[in-house]
Amino acid sequence: MVISDKLKVLPDLKWAVVGSMASVIQGCHINPGDIDIWVACEADVEQVVNCFREQLPEDAIITTIEENWVSSLTQPTVTFQIDRSDWTLGRVYINSVKIDIAYAVIREMESYIPGMGLWENGPDIGDLIKFISVNESVIPVVPLEVQLQTNYLRGIESRIAAITDKFRTDGYDDALLRYCLEQHHYKKFSDDFKK
After folding, report:
1. Of 24, 54, 60, 112, which alpha carbon lies 20 to 30 A from 157's?
2. Which SUPFAM superfamilies match (predicted)?
3. Quick one: CA dihedral 77, 69, 94, 103, positive or negative?
4. What is the pTM for the complete model shown?
């Protein structure tokens, strides 16, 4: 994978593939729209963007977060707020594939409370990252158990079904699932899984 090869120059970087591509890497049958990269601290976003300097334009016409915004040499990252979360984002394209590199944190939340719904892009996933061998690379990914919560929150039934199918064939970590899911989502998953 091109991304992991590029990021080898940052051996201390803590990162993971999140979003739909993480599901694909773990064997789910879905079509990812882009590649989302989680990093453990805000300064890492710019470091990762700099690994793709040859793809960056000198300057970007759009300077605020929009679908068309892209990192540039003069503005490698952008910061913004969504609801109660603060984001730092970098965006690059490789062969027309969008790669978003993000650090995000929820304001006024010191640490995750189990059973309240673990946020896939939040700082609390750092200790849960798993490593998947793909061809000659080892790719860090957010576990499917965490992704299930995200997809329940977003109401993406097709991805819930794809993750559930993968759990049916390969099993899952029930303790991790209880930790990650909101309690009512865990009950729904358990009821649906038995059918």
Report:
1. 112
2. Nucleotidyltransferase (SSF81301)
3. positive
4. 0.91
